[in-house]
Design a protein that fits this description.
The protein has about 120 residues and is mainly alpha-helical. It contains four helices and two strands; from the N terminus they run ααββαα. The chain has a two-stranded antiparallel ribbon. A hairpin with a 2-residue loop joins β1 and β2. The N and C termini lie far apart (about 45 Å).
Length: about 120
Amino acid sequence: MALLDVSAASLVTMYVAFVALLLTGIAAGIMGSWWVTGWFWAALVVLAGITAAMIPLGVKPFSDIRRFAGVKYAINGKWFPPEPADPAKMNAAVAGLRPGLLSGIALAGLAIVLWLMMFKPF
């Protein structure tokens, strides 16, 4: 339960950091005149792909776990009050998590973006 609370509390920080990443990336693109290069757009597409993958694979399952654990949970950014805990559903939701896939997507995406930034292949 404590880890679910920490996870929920960190969401605001994560979204603020994501917006800061986007804004600084846009500023760097303007300052470096990289808007006309293919690698810059490819890096933005990879970032969008990482984000698109993390929502159904990470956000939704953890929201379900929060719901079945009997703590407040969110659906599409709207928070709902706790419901009665359902240990069987919570265990099933935990079993359905795919942390290896989430980590793999994040690390592979990061590696691709770093490669694009360092070598500027196109």
